Structures are given as C-alpha cells and as structure tokens.
Amino acid sequence: DLTESSLLNKLLHTSLVENSQHVEVLQQDPSSPLYSIRTFEELHLKKELLRGVYTMGFNRPSKIQENALPIMMAHPPQNLIAQSQSGTGKTAAFVLAMLSRVKGAESFPQCLCLAPTYELALQIGHVVEKMGQFCSDIKVTYAVQGNRG
Q1: How far apart (Å, rounded) are the C-alpha atoms in residues 130 and 58?
Q2: What residues does the Helicase ATP-binding domain cover (predicted)?
Q3: pLDDT at 32
C-alpha cells in the first residue's frame, strides 16, 4: 500500500537524519563558515542539482552529509576519509560534491569516479544520473569491461 510505503520511507529518512550516535569530527579549520551544514541550500548549489537532490528523497542532510559535504566542497577541495553505516548517504554526498564542480560550458571529462566492482560502478552511475537528471550538462559514461561506447 502506498500509504504504508510513504510512512516507512519517512521513518527511514528520519532515523538517518536524527541519530543519537556519537560522531567524532576532526576538521582542519573549525572556524570555517562551512564547518557543518543543516540544509542543502547552505551549499549554494545550482538549482538543477538541488532539484535532483530533493527528487531523490533527501529533505535535509544526514549526519555524514552534514559533516562531509563542507569538506568535499571546500575551495580548494580537501581530502576526506569517512566511515558510516550502509544507507546513510555517503554515495550521494560524494556524488553531490563531484557534480557541483561540473562546468556546463566545458565539453571534456571533468569527473572520474573509480569503483572496485562492476556492480558498484553501476550503482554509483545510477546515483549520478538521478541526481544530475535536471542538469543538461551531465553525461555519464561507464568504462567497464564489455563497454564499447
């Protein structure tokens, strides 16, 4: 039933966003205005990309996204090692940071994402396609075994 599905979705997203677990964050510059975020609007994304984020069902950043996105979207970009449970939005976080740097006027490859398995490459590619669906300048190409085009 659609009502039960919507309620389940809401409960799942709420538990991902509102977590009582202790999170240890070590950041180079805690005085940075982007130390952590509470909304996706704080990232000043292109409206098409923000629309893609909301279409994917993200209403606000999860705990890992709150802390990881400002680091990954800093200028210049910073390296980040993060660990979080499955389903907490790690892939969406690095895809969002990656897509936010694409300049539509440039017609050459601007992002490269490596994955250890074929299946994970496809999964990440689908997130890129879904998040970037409203950005006319986003094109995904897979460099995997058996792909000739």
Answers
A1: 12
A2: 71-149
A3: 54
Which residues of the chain are modeled with pLDDT < 50? 33-34
Q: Please give the Cα distance from 89 to 55 (Å, whole number).
A: 14
- pLDDT for 24 equals 58
For residue 23, give every residue at least 6 positions away whose Cβ sits within 8 Å of its Cβ, in sequence order, or none: 63, 67
Cβ neighbours around 53 below 10 Å, total: 22
CB 127, CB 92: distance < 8 Å: yes
Instruction: For 131, list phi and psi in degrees, rounded to 5.
Output: -70, -35
Determine the 3-state secondary structure of 73 from DSSP.
coil
pLDDT for the residue numbered 137: 82
**Cis ω for the linkage preceding 33 (within 30 of 0):** no
30-149: CATH, from 3.60.21.10, 3.40.50.1000, 3.40.50.300, 3.40.50.2300: 3.40.50.300
Q: Please tell me the distance from the alpha carbon of residue 81 to that of residue 78, in angstroms, as a whole number.
A: 10
The 10 Å Cβ neighbour count of residue 26 is: 6
